[in-house]
Design goal:
This protein is an alpha+beta fold. Helix content is 31%, strand content 16%. It has 6 helices and 7 strands. The strands form 3 sheets. The chain has a 3-stranded antiparallel sheet with strand order 1-3-2, with no helix packed on it. Helix 3 links the parallel strand 4 and strand 5. The protein starts with 13 loop residues before the first strand and ends with a helix. InterPro entries: CAT-like_dom_sf. Keywords: Acyltransferase, Transferase. Pfam families: Transferase.
Length: 243
């Protein structure tokens, strides 16, 4: 169990869960990092780095408490579980096998760190992508649309010249894609995430809320889509601030 390198002050020992925390789903996102031998990343360095990081994100080293009616985190510096795993195969072979079977220990909702050490054979060729494996999964085709800075700036100037709207680049692109997809032949709704970190400087993690913008079937210009999304974001933030 790795604990914060500096004990958490007594006045930070209890962190009450917010309205957003109570709504958040109890999901656990496992991430595995592979390090080549040339990086020389040692276990000691990883452990020290994690211990130093936990001093800033001390709630992650605590435990949930339900002693009272109000849920909270007891920031007791109990620590996070650090697991080292050794696999007797070269890295290229491990990457092939990892796609077919689960070679990692079972993960639960406890904070965990897994450090994997595998032998590396001389002359091993490391793939720049996952190796090809026969699979029955359907073929997935994706497309990427690139909006360069000049095109976005010109589009933004067009919107600002025709109204008093001052959209962000994200709102502008969302509005453009929405307008192109629905055209003007039917009613439509746009579901998107709103970043609420600006409402609380002490928030830990990603604080988001869904916003839903509705558009009736009619021939509208781009600035109407932009205004609708902007109003939805503003109304959602105001409503959340009243909770």
């Amino acid at each position: 169990m790795l604990k914060p390198s500096t004990p958490t002050p007594n006045h930070f020992r209890t962190l009450k869960l917010s309205f957003f925390d109570e709504l958040a789903l109890p999901v656990y996102v496992p991430i595995l990092f592979y390090y080549l031998p040339s990086i020389k990343t040692s276990c000691d360095k990883l452990q020290k780095s994690l211990a130093d990081t936990l001093t800033k994100f001390y709630p992650l080293a605590g435990r949930f408490s339900e002693d009272d009616d109000e849920l909270s985190i007891h920031c007791n510096d109990e620590g996070v579980e650090y697991i080292e795993s050794k696999v007797n195969m070269d890295l290229a072979e491990f990457l092939r096998e990892a796609l077919k079977i689960d070679l990692l220990p079972e993960m639960d909702n406890r904070p965990q760190v897994h450090y994997l050490e595998s032998k590396v054979l001389s002359g091993t060729q490391f793939p720049s992508s996952a190796p090809n494996i026969n699979t029955t999964r359907p073929k997935i085709v994706t497309r990427r649309f690139i909006f360069d800075a000049l095109a976005i700036a010109n589009l933004k100037n067009t919107i600002e010249d025709s109204s008093d709207i001052r959209p962000t680049r994200v709102v502008l692109i969302m509005s453009l894609i929405w307008k192109v997809l629905v055209w003007h032949s039917r009613n439509s709704s746009l579901l998107f995430l709103i970043n609420l970190r600006s409402l609380d400087d002490d928030a830990l993690g990603n604080c988001t809320m869904y916003g839903i913008a509705n558009m009736e079937a009619r021939k509208d210009e781009l600035n109407h889509f932009v205004k609708l999304i902007g109003n939805t974001i503003g109304d959602t933030c105001v409503a959340i601030g009243k909770r």
